[in-house]
Task: inverse folding
């Protein structure tokens, strides 16, 4: 394949697609288009290490100018794609430039759902490097922090702000916010985690409005009470960046609709990867959109392969995987726990060194998901079993055996 | 023959590598990557490189001898 591949979007899905195209043997031009001026960067640390200040900017860089040049990737940063002309095979940029392609990969990701509560200042979302810098500056204010949204981003920001010495309260209209993902039983363990670390929570209560400005904000809740805050963080989900495709003629329905090969259902030379792709997952038998880092990486690999090898198309059928760091918990989730009923717990939930797993059987008893806390080895075990359709009883037996093994240094290479 | 390397102090136990190449990478009881092999045949290199690139903290590398 020697044609020009244009990759639109410079976050992890776009960068990995561009790099993997070379690994797969593409020797034609590659153009990587990014809306932000910033060199491509990784997003997971924005609510954790980078927000806390324990990592610096260089550590989250996904692609340097030198690495792009070495790989023959034409990096065009600072101008967003404005529209896609599928018939003419051209990406039109916001400044009017027209970038022709033989194949285009849409990897424009997702944006933070904007705060519906607008004030002069002091209300933040966390999605971009600029958001992270702004919030980091906001957290320098000694006032209390109110986090709206008790999902993963909200919980991570709460933990980071708490570790930075702020008084923090998390608000969410759901009584057990993460229960939506992991079920109410395990979700309650997550909810308790805030309290155990001295972080307040107002779960089951919505936000009516926010007023004031940075350093002097008031958050009005639906139960009539009010919280004072120096800084407010709103983490209420994301929306795919697909509005620029509205007049492209592509089928767009909460993401670019693709077949199992991650190719747009209505255009053979258009692919999509990452948060913006809604593709047919043959294992699930359903169109699926996943907003996880690992999916972006794996889907980029699949797309690069399929662009370079059209006669050997690969299906994208990943086992979902996501991690989250909250307080002293490293949380890892494999599979789709929300599809299961009850879960079984193995290991130690409480104590100074919590280490446990929740195992989720499907209706037939097969392992369909697992949530592990501070236990990567159990996660690796369960990830294999979910991928191969193992039985949940087998998973429990293996985890109980692992739980019995005393902690020891690794065998080689340490 | 390409040599496998792992930065054990960088490893965070995300286990992406174990899924991508379970014959090459494992996780120990401390949650740290274990190299099951020290070298990789040239024909396996693309697959193992893909596994190494799936590490969120770039703890894995494959070096020319």
Result:
């Amino acid at each position: 394949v020697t044609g020009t591949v244009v990759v639109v979007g410079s976050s992890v899905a776009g960068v990995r697609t561009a790099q993997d195209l070379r690994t797969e043997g593409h020797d034609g031009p590659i153009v990587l288009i990014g809306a932000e001026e910033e060199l491509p960067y990784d997003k997971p640390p924005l609510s954790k290490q980078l927000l806390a200040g324990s990592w610096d900017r260089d550590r989250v860089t996904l692609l340097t100018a030198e690495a792009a040049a070495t790989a023959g990737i034409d990096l065009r940063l600072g101008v967003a794609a404005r529209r896609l002309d599928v018939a003419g095979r051209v990406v039109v940029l916001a400044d009017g430039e027209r970038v022709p392609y033989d194949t285009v990969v849409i990897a424009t990701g997702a944006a933070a759902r904007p705060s519906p509560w607008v004030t002069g200042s002091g209300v933040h979302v966390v999605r971009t490097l600029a958001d992270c810098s702004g919030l980091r500056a906001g957290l320098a204010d000694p006032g209390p922090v109110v986090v709206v949204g008790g999902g993963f981003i909200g919980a991570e920001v709460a933990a980071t702000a708490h570790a930075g010495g702020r008084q923090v309260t998390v608000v969410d209209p759901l009584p057990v916010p993460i229960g939506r993902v992991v079920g109410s039983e395990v979700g309650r363990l997550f909810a308790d985690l805030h309290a155990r670390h001295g972080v307040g929570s107002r779960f089951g209560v919505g936000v009516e409005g926010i007023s004031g400005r940075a350093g002097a904000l008031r958050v009005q809740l639906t139960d009539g009470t009010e919280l004072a805050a120096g800084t407010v963080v709103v983490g209420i989900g994301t929306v795919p960046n697909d509005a620029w495709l509205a007049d492209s003629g592509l089928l767009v329905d909460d993401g670019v609709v693709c077949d199992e090969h991650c190719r747009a259902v209505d255009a053979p030379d258009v692919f999509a990867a990452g948060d913006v792709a809604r593709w047919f997952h043959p294992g699930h038998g359903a169109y699926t959109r996943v907003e996880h880092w690992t999916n972006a990486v794996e889907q980029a690999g699949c797309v690069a392969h399929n662009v370079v090898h059209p006669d050997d198309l690969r299906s994208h059928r990943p086992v979902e995987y996501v991690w989250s760091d909250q307080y002293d918990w490293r949380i890892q989730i494999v599979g789709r726990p929300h599809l299961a009923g009850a879960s079984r717990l193995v290991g130690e939930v409480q104590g100074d060194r919590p280490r446990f797993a929740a195992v989720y059987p499907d209706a037939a008893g097969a392992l369909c998901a697992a949530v592990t806390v501070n236990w990567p080895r159990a996660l690796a075990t369960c990830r294999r079993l979910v991928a191969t359709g193992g039985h949940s009883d087998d998973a429990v037996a293996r985890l109980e055996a692992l739980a019995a093994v005393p902690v020891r240094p690794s065998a080689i290479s340490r | 023959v390409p040599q496998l390397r792992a930065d054990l102090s960088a490893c965070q136990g995300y286990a992406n590598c174990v899924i991508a190449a379970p014959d090459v990478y494992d996780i120990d009881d401390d949650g740290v990557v274990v190299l099951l092999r020290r070298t990789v045949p040239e024909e396996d290199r693309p697959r193992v490189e893909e596994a190494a690139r799936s590490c969120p903290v770039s703890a894995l590398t494959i070096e020319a001898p």
Q: What stands out?
A: Chain B has a mean pLDDT of 90.
